[in-house]
């Protein structure tokens, strides 16, 4: 009995030693390298007073100031800020999208970049996130983030949103999930999310499908993933482009006519999207103008082609 006790004590001591030793020798946690690309929006906005949440100026605070205003970021990642442009997102252009997508591709091709956060105005977050979801050629995380209240406001949501976005962009869980949009503790897919309310903080939703997961206790918790092809798996590649073709949208509404369509064609549109009601129905008065526009485009393309030949 006595010798069994001695053996048991020795065994426990060995286990205790092993576990203490491994805790002492555990390598320090390696922080992910996350680049924060700043593009403007309300997250970088300032108002006249702390109570100003309407009528403020978007896109005022520079990238380094924005990053430095959340010192907690440095505890969860090696962060580096870069101003790509500084605009309110309603002013976004095709050139802005190309610039952003190409810069992300450049950075993610480097071994020392683990993930990207894009700070952005919320008005067109969904368009930018979807564009990036189709054109970024990397499985590393890309997270687009914004804020509904300017940085100067009481209870500004920018700092916590940025903090969560950086954790998400540096996480293994976000790898391969496509471009993500993260605000108000919720993670949505860039290709699915939409802004549903002009001013509330819980505005970003994915109707019908639901969010992918949420941020809690400094960690992402995913519940689902989109099954659609994203980023490196899509057929889109903008690396050889320095311009996107001009494509305009003709909206259907009561009593609509071909005036806008004709103007777009005359201005040299390379494509027209007809945004019709229901399942894309076309008003009877628009069928011929649309057919004529298509015929005119193809005949001028054919002429251009034969002139070249
Ligand atoms: N108009 C602003 C923008 O999209 C709104 C926002 O950021 O929330 O830049």
Keywords:
309 residues; alpha/beta; Rossmann fold; 2 domains; 8-stranded mixed sheet; two-stranded antiparallel sheet; 8 helices; 34% helix; globular; disordered N terminus; binds aspartic acid
CATH superfamily caption of the largest domain: L-asparaginase, N-terminal domain
- DSSP strand tally: 12
Distance between the termini: 100 Å
Q: Uncertain segments of ≥5 residues (pLDDT<50)?
A: 1-21
CATH topology of the largest domain: Rossmann fold
Rg (C-alpha, Å): 25 Å
**What structural category characterises the helix and strand content?**
alpha/beta
Proportion in β-strands: 15-25%
Question: Could you name the CATH class of the largest domain?
Answer: Alpha Beta
In helices, the fraction of residues equals 25-40%
The overall pLDDT, averaged over residues, is 91
Specify the overall morphology.
globular
For the largest beta sheet, what order do the strands appear in spatially? 2-1-3-4-5-6-9-10
């Amino acid at each position: 009995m006595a010798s069994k006790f001695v053996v048991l004590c020795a065994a426990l001591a060995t286990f205790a030693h092993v576990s203490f030793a491994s805790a002492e020798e555990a390598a320090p946690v390696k922080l992910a390298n996350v680049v924060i690309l700043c593009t403007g929006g309300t997250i970088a906005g300032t108002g006249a007073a702390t109570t100003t949440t309407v009528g403020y100026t978007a896109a005022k605070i520079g990238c380094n100031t924005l990053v430095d205003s959340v010192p907690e970021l440095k505890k969860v990642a090696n962060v580096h800020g870069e101003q790509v442009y500084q605009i309110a997102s309603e002013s976004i252009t095709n050139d802005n999208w190309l610039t952003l997508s190409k810069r992300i591709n450049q950075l993610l091709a480097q071994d020392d970049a683990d993930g990207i956060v894009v700070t952005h105005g919320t008005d067109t977050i969904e368009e930018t996130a979807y564009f990036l979801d189709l054109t970024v050629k990397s499985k590393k995380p890309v997270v687009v983030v914004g804020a509904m209240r300017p940085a100067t406001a009481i209870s500004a949501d920018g700092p916590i949103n940025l903090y969560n976005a950086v954790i998400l962009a540096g996480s293994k869980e976000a790898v391969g999930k496509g471009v993500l949009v993260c605000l108000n503790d919720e993670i949505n897919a860039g290709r699915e999310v939409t802004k549903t309310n002009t001013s509330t903080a819980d505005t970003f939703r994915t109707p019908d499908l639901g969010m992918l997961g949420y941020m809690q206790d400094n960690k992402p918790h995913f519940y689902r993933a989109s099954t659609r092809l994203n980023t490196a798996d899509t057929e889109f590649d903008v690396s050889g482009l320095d311009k996107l073709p001009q494509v305009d949208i003709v909206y259907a509404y009561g009593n609509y006519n071909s005036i806008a369509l004709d103007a777009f064609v005359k201005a040299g549109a390379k494509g027209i999207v007809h945004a019709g009601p229901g399942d894309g129905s076309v008003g009877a008065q628009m069928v011929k103008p649309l057919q004529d526009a298509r015929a005119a485009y193809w005949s001028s393309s054919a002429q251009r082609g034969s002139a070249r030949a």
